[in-house]
Amino acid sequence: MNSIAQKFQEVFGHPPDISAAAPGRVNLIGEHIDYSEGFVLPFAIQDCTFVAISKNDSGTLKIASLQRESEILEIPLADISPSRSGDWEKYVLGVVWALGVTSGLEILIDGNVPLGAGLSSSAALEASVATALNSLFSLGHDLPTLARLCQRAENDYVGMPCGIMDQSVSLMANDGSALLLDCRDLSTTNISFDVASANLELLIIDTQAHHELVDGGYAQRRASCDSVVAKLGIISMRHLSSEQLNNNREKITETEYIRARHAVTEIQRVLDAVKALEANDFVHLGALINESHASLRDDYTVSCPELDCAVNASISSGALGARMVGGGFGGSAIALIKASEIEATKQAIEKAFSDSGFVKPRFFTSLPSQGARVL
Ligand code: GLA
Predict the structure, then answer these.
(1) Calculated CA dihedral for residues 314, 315, 320, 322, nearest 10 degrees
(2) Which of 45, 94, 219, 238 is within CB 3.0–4.6 Å of 37 for a Cys-Cys bond?
(3) CA of 326 to the centre of ligand 1 (A)
(4) What stretches of the chain show up as alpha helix (H) in DSSP?
(5) For residue 184, which of 327, 25, 34 has the smallest C-alpha distance?
(6) Location of each CATH 3.30.230.10 domain in the chain
């Protein structure tokens, strides 16, 4: 029996019917463009959320999480509705709801994706539950469909207007590769991402910051993009060139112009990053990562002092590139660093944080890893 199945047995007194795992993610490049039908280049980290599930005919869901130290939550099936208030269990209920599962269930969650670090612990939770239920009930959904159902759970049940990147990479990533995801049709290409053979390492810096703007700021950015799309009569930012944007500048507000400039340039940077990786040109990749951060900081304005501090300290100590990842306003940054300089860089970042009076950051590294699987 695997470890999550054993823990399930301890909590519920019998073995589960199924267990599954799904990873968190880091996005190499392609930020805030998944909801604009752009390209993104994330990879799955080694850390996973694990779930074990059994079905029963009790008419209730019993849910426990070993991360939350709470007792077992017991929720009548009839109460599963987006209007039910709740906490972390909303992500689980949302997936049950989106997949249309109507059986009583016992569900145990465990995992090691750092919570609140911008590494998509919520998408990992959704993807693990979706993977297990898809198999347990022989629903036959393919991975893109499961990703859309997980996104629906988060958009319509939890109420967070996220894009499709995090759920897709958690479900579809592969060992050793970043996942080039076309957010228009969810087609994917594995792009080999082997920093070690170039004597590099990708450092993940969790700033431990979490600013108020997280949810409202995200929705506002999406709304700006939607407004540009409507005013310019295009299908999405994917259909906008820099030239067209500049020629139509007077039709949109200045804020909308700089938001759109981020989207248009970031989509191109992702395609350029793929070429750089295919040519093993990590110096160019680093430059694109730096440009991405500048665009997120200055045009999209989703960075924050802690993220900028992590990025600046990394670059000052010799990183090839560094940038914030994820939604922004806190969470994590990444830095592409020579393996021999990793300790010195961490110390420089810690010092910069301490000099600025910020909470001590946490550091992780991770190889690109496999997406969700039944265990
Ligand atoms: C969050 C969202 C994603 C994506 C990123 C920004 O992680 O969940 O859909 O929009 O922010 O790239």
Answers:
(1) 60
(2) 238
(3) 5
(4) 3-12, 89-98, 121-136, 143-152, 165-172, 214-232, 242-247, 254-278, 282-298, 305-316, 342-356
(5) 34
(6) 3-190
Contacts of 104 (CB under 8 A, 6+ apart): 55, 56, 57, 58, 59, 60, 61, 77
Q: What is the largest CA-CA distance in the chain?
A: 66
Count Cα atoms within 13 angstroms, Cβ side, for 67: 17
By three-state DSSP, how is residue 42 classified? strand
CA of residue 29 to ligand 1 center, whole Å: 12
Distance 179 CA to ligand 1 centre (A): 15
User: Which residue numbers are catalytic?
Assistant: 166
105-151 pLDDT tens trace: 999 999 999 988 989 999 999 999 999 999 999 999 999 999 999 99
Output the CA torsion sign for 268, 271, 277, 278: negative
pTM of the predicted structure, to 2 decimals: 0.96
Where in the sequence of the chain do the CATH 3.30.70.890 domains occur? 193-364
pLDDT along the chain (375 residues), means of 10: 93 97 98 98 98 96 89 94 92 98 97 91 97 98 98 96 97 97 98 94 95 81 97 96 97 98 98 97 98 98 97 98 96 97 97 98 95 98
Read off φ and ψ for residue 364, nearest 5 degrees: -140, 160
For the chain, state the CA radius of gyration: 21
Distances (CA, A) of 310 to 30, 198, 305, 321, 333: 19, 23, 9, 11, 7
DSSP string, 159-217: -----SHHHHHHHH--TTEEEEEETTTTEEEEEE---GGGTEEEEEEEEEEE-TTHHHH
- Which CATH fold would you assign to the domain 3-190? Ribosomal Protein S5; domain 2 (3.30.230)
Range 193-364: architecture per CATH: 2-Layer Sandwich (3.30)
Based on the number of CB atoms within 10 Å of its own CB, is 322 exposed (0-12), middle (13-18) or buried (19 or more)?
A: buried
Test site for ligand 1: of 28, 32, 150, most ligand atoms within 8 A of the Cβ: 32
Q: Tell me what pLDDT residue 215 has.
A: 72
Q: What is the SS3 assignment for 156?
A: helix
Residue 31 in contact with ligand 1 by CB distance below 6 A: yes
